[in-house]
């Protein structure tokens, strides 16, 4: 049987450890579940302020890497100014012109958060390159559609990155995308690394392919 003094010492140590944890968790300038801004340089791409790489869809708070097109979601255009403010569990907190949101790493968990953030926050405004595309390609990108003849970069700008859980290699000949959980479309690249064809069902084709 453990004597009373030893029990009391154990309780005292437990309470002391709890106080230490609480003190570390609620220091001024720290937000729960989020790294302090002082550590951003080690956690986020440089610069932490830039532009969205591509068209992304949001429900107003959450931007998922799967980029589903669902009722109530709004398209945030490629090149929108963005500032990374911190990160939490599988998410990057950002400021956009219309408010605070988070980019969620829902289906690319094999990427570390820094690499994930670097995909979506780029230093150079993609709209500069977009302006130099042919009118038809530019229209396709701006409407979040793909078409034969597009480069990989143009596809990314139009519909975002394919999730890495299904597309671990970006130099693969086929990229798998999902317009919804039931609507898959595959972008097939030729030997010249341009889109050769888009394979999907008729209904999804009408929504994602620029003819």
TrEMBL record:
Protein name: Outer membrane protein assembly factor BamE
Origin species: Ramlibacter montanisoli
